[in-house]
Amino acid sequence: MESLRVRDVMTPDVTTLQRNDKLTLADDIMRLGRIRHLPVLDEDGQLAGILTQRDLFRGALAKALGYGERAQRQLMDTLVVKEVMTAEVLTTTPDTPLAEAAKCWWNGRLDACPWSTGGG
Predict the structure, then answer these.
(1) Are 50 and 86 in contact (CB under 8 A)?
(2) Residue partners of 116: CB distance under 8 A and separation at least 6
(3) N or C: which end of the chain has fewer CB within 10 A?
């Protein structure tokens, strides 16, 4: 594992969202693609945050209030990604040793860590 790098296990072509995308779009992408984490990009294509299934569920409070699926989707259609995403994101690079990245994930109790070749 010492010689493995993040690039050896990362997903190279990821689906992303924009900050102003509706939560219904995010929900559809996550369900259809069986994706639990989506990087969120700003208007310049830079990483602005990450949207997790947990964020999505928190944003869709209708479920907790006992609304049906149709009402949940109507509520999610009024919310945009930037309102529920996690903006503070720990990133790594493709060349980071996998053991080093794993320590960060473990210590931070993270489920995902976007990789970046640039400044964030």
Answers:
(1) yes
(2) 47, 91, 92, 93
(3) N
